Amino acid sequence: MISLGCAKNLVDAEIMLGSALAQGMEITGDADEADVLIVNTCAFIDSAKEESIEAILDAHRGRGLKKRKGQKLIVAGCMAQRFSKELMSELPEVDAFLGLDQIKDAPQIIEQVLARDTPLTDATWQPLNLVSRKPAYLPDWDTPRFRLTPSHTAFTKIAEGCNHPCSFCVIPQMRGRHRSRTIESVVAEVRALVAEGVKEINLISQDTTYYGMDLWEEKAGPRQKVDPTRGVTLVHLLHELQRIEGEFWIRLLYTHPAHWSDELIAAIAACDKVCRYIDMPLQHIHPRMLEVMRRETSSEHIEDLIARIRAGIPGIAIRTTFIVGFPGETEEEFDYLLDFIERTRFERLGVFTYSQEEGSRAAKMEGQLPQKTKQARYKRAMKLQQKIAREQSEAQIGTTIRALVDNPKTARGHIDAPDIDGRILLTKTAPVGEFIDVQITGAQIYDLIGCPA
């Protein structure tokens, strides 16, 4: 399995592997040993698509090796879901394309592919296209999984799909409408993970703060406004997870500013197992940019929300991302964003240059900016954030931080999510997968240096 892209895609890969194991198949980390190789692709932005295509071609080239004669190649994930028809003609080397609804059926598809003769010299031969157009699949607590993360950390997908109309994004077209798991299903999964020794549960979906609102919509009716304080919500889920015994962290990833409530802020403050860490991609702050991006929120709402979160949850760290170089973005609008970044001083921040995604509303907009302009704005925004990040890191010197050890010489505090944020570089070894106290003795731009207490 070669899995690319985000943590949500990684969970899909884990389900495919877990289902294969449950059917008696074996998993190998050596591609030369594999009868079947699956490339789980990403199609979020241009660079992700390019990486996915290169991974597919590399896998096919590897089949020219003597050890891999007869090896089958399956392409899964968002790129397969979005472009399977086009890819069938462009990549005849692939044996099958499977979509997001088919990940649970991976064992049956593997057997089907293995039983199929694939003469690549036959002009009439075509890959299997097993992609359904409107994904509806949702994993459950007992869905087989083979975790690809370190044993002490895991991702739990609490919902799938997205209802937002963001003009730059095609995720709803790929992953379908938002659909939430039940609280009972999520709690059962987390309880099992904690029993296995997992110390960090990362809750993920396309929009974590929308969790449960679709269930309330079903009861209230499509014309009823969703009340975030009623029905099944993220607030109720957090309180249920808080009741699970054991020492572990709960981390919220991928929240949307439009669906925060005072009740959610109070729930995070009340639940000591929930990390004082918020991942909330904002994308922009200028009023006109938010409107043309179709972000369903306003600059006033965002600034007020950040103030309420920081006042209501002491010690909170906010991570966000912004898009620069969106079609029509003026220098004044970009400067407006820089001013906001400087004033707000986010603890964690990432920047993307706008990617013109085929099928999105923004791709058809006038005022597409040259790559040179987008890259220059990216560099200016990141230079500003690096200055802020260095100052914040240096302010940690002399403090003691509770941290989770990822490897003998590296740990992470509660404000650092796996793979995307900073680390604590340890001056002496510590036990992997355990919580320790670390005295911070030095700082880099994003990383800290510390001595285990």
In spatial order, strands of the major sheet run: 6-9-10-11-12-13
Helix proportion: 25-40%
Main beta sheet, described? 6 strands, parallel
Distance between the termini: 39 Å
Uncertain spans: none
**CA radius of gyration:** 23 Å
Q: What's the quaternary structure here?
A: single chain
Helix- and strand-based class?
Answer: alpha/beta
Mean pLDDT: 93
What is the global morphology? globular
Q: Per DSSP, what share of the residues sits in E-state strands of 2 or more residues?
A: 15-25%
Structure summary:
With 453 residues, the protein is α/β, with parallel strands linked by helices. It is built from 13 helices and 18 strands. Helix 6 packs parallel to helix 8 (234-242) and helix 8 (234-242) packs parallel to helix 9.
